Amino acid sequence: MYEYIKEEIINGNIKGxxxxxxxxxxxxxxxxxxxxxxxxxxxxxxEGYIESIPKVGYKVVDIxxxxxxxxxxxxxxxxxxxxxxxxxxYKYDLAPRYVDKACFNIGIWKKIxxxxxxxxxxxLLSYGDPQGELELRQEIAKYIYENRGVxxxxxxIIVGAGTQYCLNLICQMLRENFNTIGMEEPGSNYIxxxxxxxxxxxxxxxVLKSGLDVNQLEDSKCKIAFVTPSHQFPKGVIMSARNRVQxxxxxxxxxxxxxxxxxxxxxxxxxxxxxxxxSLDNDDKVIYLGSFSKIFIPTxxxxxxxxxxxxxxxxxxxxxxxxxxxxxxxxxxxARFMKKGYLQxxxxxxxxxxxxxxxxxxxxxxxxxxxxxxxxxxxAGMRVILEIKTDLTEEQIxxxxxxxxxxxxxxxxxxxEKSNYAQTGKIRVMLSYKGIPLEDIEPAIKKLSNAWFNHAxxx
Length: 459
Description:
- The protein is an alpha/beta fold.
- Helices cover 41% and strands 15% of the residues.
- The chain has helices at residues 2-10, 23-30, 34-46, 79-86, 106-119, 134-148, 163-174, 189-197, 214-219, 241-253, 309-319, 328-339, 342-368, 394-403, 418-422, 438-453, and strands at 50-53, 57-60, 92-93, 157-160, 180-185, 201-208, 211-212, 224-227, 257-261, 286-291, 303-306, 373-376, 383-388, 406-407, 409-410, 427-432.
- Helix 10 (241-253) links the parallel strand 8 (224-227) and strand 9 (257-261).
- Residues 69-86 have low confidence and may be disordered.
């Protein structure tokens, strides 16, 4: 309202000395509250665009808008263009951003979508349940019980468009009573940004070989801990049973809350998947986050959270009016995809595929890089970490890779306290094989090895 009236005054469409409509009339005409109209008028008054005259109302000030020289020219360089120009194309992209198209059978998905549209179209003519379609929540409850050991009811599950939505909602519910979150160090910049945007202080808690340093958490003032226990990002460690019990005891004894992100637990290549932390939670202290983005199509934007009943009650009281952010059609389609067993079949397929990739990248690294690196890997996930034995700087290592047409990321960028990373004195990089075709892995590693270890002519 304020921006619109201001632009109309500047452009001369509302002339100087014209009376603005009364608060009451404009409120009635636009179906807005009088408070909204008055707030806009007050801002215009404060900036000198209008004046308040007793018994007359608000009148536009003659500001000689022709002197402002407001440019109406069109700039054909949009922000999107600028962003696109900053994204380089690499021959081999080992950054953790993509999903391998070879993993997905689009035909089955299209068939399910078409069946719903053709046979159940009327069911799509409403917005649906704010918590997510019951049919989908029932399938999710069954899925996480069978695969992750999580006992919950469908009414505890909230479906949303991505982890960001779920975390934002969690932050809104917890922010009234908490202001600090303990987060794994190193950890996801994406997750940290969400917490900081919601005005939480983020305190780094070191990740050891056994997972989160619970002793350090106990010594902090944090009452909330964010963890990725089944496969820590980015280091890839699995939280030990001892640490899990200690963490749950911390939550019980300190009235703490644990947010568990179980984002890629399905990708374990040896033995059965590690049970979730939530499966051990007997005191309702764990908020469980899950997502289909890593094992399915990321752009479908389907994630979910399992709320403890004490937090569910707060959601139902204050936040259930938040609209559902995920397409009803996509929710129903995913529910059918799960109910017919296609999801489990899909997971078995991609697990084999990524296991082949894991073997390929591990063999290539041993073949071409030999003793020049320490391979920090695990039998899970879709990435490996290299610790490089070199006299080069981290910047030179990244630059040599990029100049050779290879995109990757260093581990240092995931640290909150950069000094924590610097103290190690080691250069570590992450190689994600999630999006690169299987046949490109060996040539990519060979080229990377040449760039780093025959670098005298490359710098």
